[in-house]
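Researcher: Sequence of rRNA cytosine-C5-methyltransferase follows. Predict its structure.
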Amino acid sequence: MKPGARIAAVIELYDGWTHTRDDADRVVSGYFGSRRYIGGGDRREISERFYNLIRHQARLGWWLAECGYEFQDGRARMIADLVLHDNLKPADLEDRFTGEQFCPDPLHPNEKHLINKLSGKTLDHDGQPGAVKTELPKWLYSELLKLHHESLPEEMAAYNKPAKLDLRVNRLRGTVDDAIKSLEADGIKNIKKTPYAPNGLRLPLGLNMLVTAAYKDGLIEIQDEASQICVNIVDAKPGMTILDMCAGGGGKTLGIAADMRGKGRILACDTHAARLDNARKRARRAGAGDCIQQRIISDERDTWLRSKSGFFDRVLLDVPCSGLGTLRRNPALRWRIGQRDVRAMMAEQSKILKAGAARVTRGGRLIYATCSIMPEENERLIETFMRDRKDFKPVPISDIWPDAPKSVPVPGGKDKPWLRLSPNVHGTDGFFVAVFERTAKGKAK
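Model: Prediction complete. Tokens:
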């Protein structure tokens, strides 16, 4: 495709996304699904430019308003991004906006005037408000400012960069070195070990792992390092009985099975049959099918679930959440999630936490996890749980992971021994984990 044709595709994608406000990944998938003639290289560039428009959403809007430009559509934002981010000159834009087949219409006089106003400037400007600088809705900026204070700009700058590709090596199929050798044999280069997760590998973006022998043989799974760390903190041992109550596609279930060396029993539950079907296929490929059972449940009040009171050595609750810790991969989430959504999530999380706690045996552990950066879904909810459940005591992350780097556990002493990860500090998705042990004494409310 010509450069102009790729730009036209980005404009079409962006306008389609703003019209529907659908999930950005789904918009991209649908767009390319109906245009199979677009090659892989073109798809990558179109996708990257589209997601950049979303990552630059607030700043581009600010610049267009600052210049007195009345339009805020995909064409206007694409022009502004090409000048402010790509540093293209007026002549470069005219070469792309030609009106030829599949290319955008020629530039209008007012667009040329906009380009001249923006030339020599960058996306960032001292006059931009904090919410604009950090690419956040105002409500979310206010909430996160309470958590991060003066470090918020650095935190959000990290969330606004694309994530690398993380893999977990499945120890039921081989070692980390086995996986590296297999990937290198398939022509994969620049493979690095993750700094915290012992079975993790980090690769550049844009690689298709699904065609590699390591993936087909079940030796690797695609999984962010934060999720791998969460699995390690479950601290599963061979022979245990474990409940993964919100299993989804089963990524953490598979990690737990590997830690148990396939010996024991894992119940992977979810309310969506399609997710569990996919989890079942992944378990077979990973060689973990014998120790994992999938079960569809109606909700946290499911009759079968209620019959398992005090039954499990470990209960993992990777609860449904806002997902705002995955902004590196899903930059559009910040513009789709509102305060009402977070409050609704909190109500559901509280119910799941209560139901999960009831399933833990005396001396067993409850692991609460989210891929959210919102204190309401994490610390505040956990603090309420601690007030209500005197039969559970927090387990410091340092007790489970004694050799963890000092940057990993969140400071706060024995009263707040939670784990909070971020791309700025740890290079992972945003993630939160809290661990509790059910004591032999104490009484639930």
